[in-house]
Structures are given as C-alpha cells and as structure tokens.
C-alpha cells in the first residue's frame, strides 16, 4: 500500500529569510523607502510586526514590500477574481439554412439573428448541403450574402468572415455592430 505525502504548497512569493538577494529595494506604507542590505530590511519588517515579501524579483535590486503576507495574498486573489468577473464571455449562436430556404423562412431567421446580435452575441450562419445539393453552392452563397447584407444595411451587424466552404457547409460570421448600452 502506497502512502501519499501531503506537501505544503510552495509560496507564490519569497518571504523574509527565503529571499536570496544581498540588497533589496524596500517599499511599503509608513516606512523609509530605499535600498537596504537584506538583514536590515528583514529587521525593519520585524520591528513593525509584518513580513518582507519579494514582489519583483527580476528588478535590480529586487523590490520587496513590507506587508502582512496573508492580507497581501487575499488582496491579490480578490483583484484576480474582479478581473475575471469583468471579462466578457463571447457566445456564438448558429443559424442553419438549406440551399433552397424560402424567403419567409429567411425573414423568420433574420428576426432571430437580430435578437442574438442585440444581446451582444456573434452569429454564425451556415447553409448545409445534403447529398447532391452541393452542386448549388452559388445559391447558398447568394442566400448568405443577402442575409448578411440585410443585417448590415439595418446597422445591426458587421461581417467578420465572408462565405467560406467547410466540408458540406458554407458559413459566414456576423458580429454585433454597436456596443450594448
């Protein structure tokens, strides 16, 4: 039977005695900022009851900050979470046509595309060719171009990708024109 040894996570930053540089630039609140020998910098941190954390190891000399390390990690995690929350996730909705799709059906699908684009999603429209209908590629291209031009003329979308054949499909990609307010 194999035993699993639980290892402590390696810290993200070098702290106090783990710092290897001889001289460090010390920054922090209520501290005389400047370049100090490592021993003096650690002494300054202990006087205040905080940790010396290496925040920029590649600088010359390395930059160290006098802070409470746990609080420092918490604030960094909080910033990362905030950045992640502010990123926009792009969704691509798909609309499928056949090469012989009727005008009424195209109008119906135009309404769906308008709705998707107004929500801020991209729309991938494609014509699926079954069997021998692959002979009518020009019909598919004409249908997609008419569809895209209608949405562009209304000012709802802009074409990101012109009609492109991918196996049995011919597709275009439309993106919302204006930002959602």
How would you describe the overall organization of this protein?
This protein has 181 residues and is an alpha/beta fold. It folds into 2 domains: 16-79, Ubiquitin-like (UB roll), CATH 3.10.20.80; 92-176, Translation initiation factor 3 (IF-3), C-terminal domain (Translation Initiation Factor IF3). It is 34% helix and 28% strand. It contains 4 helices and 8 strands. The strands form 2 sheets. Strands 2-1-4-3 form a 4-stranded mixed beta sheet. A hairpin with a 6-residue loop joins strand 3 (51-56) and strand 4 (63-67). The longest helix is centred in the middle third of the chain and has 18 residues, at 69-86. It is elongated, with a radius of gyration of 30 Å.
Structural class: alpha/beta
Poorly predicted tracts of residues:
none
How many domain units? 2
Gross geometry: elongated
Distance between the termini: 61 Å
Mean pLDDT: 83
Radius of gyration, taken over Cα atoms and rounded to an integer in Å: 30 Å
Strand content: 25-35%
* CATH top level assignment of the largest domain: Alpha Beta
Question: What is the element layout, followed by pairings?
Answer:
Elements: E1 23-27, E2 34-37, H1 38-48, E3 51-56, E4 63-67, H2 69-86, E5 92-97, H3 103-118, E6 122-128, H4 137-153, E7 157-166, E8 169-176
Parallel strand pairs: 1-4, 5-6
Antiparallel strand pairs: 1-2, 3-4, 6-8, 7-8
């Amino acid at each position: 039977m194999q035993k699993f040894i639980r290892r402590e996570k390696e810290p993200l930053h070098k702290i106090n005695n783990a710092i290897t540089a001889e001289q460090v630039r010390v920054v922090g609140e209520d501290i005389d900022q400047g370049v100090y020998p490592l021993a003096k910098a650690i002494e300054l941190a202990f006087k205040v009851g905080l940790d010396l954390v290496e925040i920029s190891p590649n600088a010359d000399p390395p930059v160290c900050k006098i802070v409470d390390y746990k609080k420092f990690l918490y604030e960094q995690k909080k910033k990362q979470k905030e950045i992640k929350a502010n990123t926009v996730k792009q969704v691509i909705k798909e609309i499928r046509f056949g090469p012989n799709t009727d005008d009424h059906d195209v109008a119906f699908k135009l309404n769906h595309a308008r709705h998707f684009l107004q929500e801020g999603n991209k729309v991938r429209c494609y014509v699926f060719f079954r069997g021998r209908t692959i002979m009518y590629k020009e019909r598919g291209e004409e249908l997609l171009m008419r569809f895209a031009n209608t949405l562009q003329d209304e000012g709802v979308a802009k074409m990101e990708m012109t009609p492109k054949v991918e196996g049995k499909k011919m597709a275009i990609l439309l993106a919302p024109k204006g930002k959602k307010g």
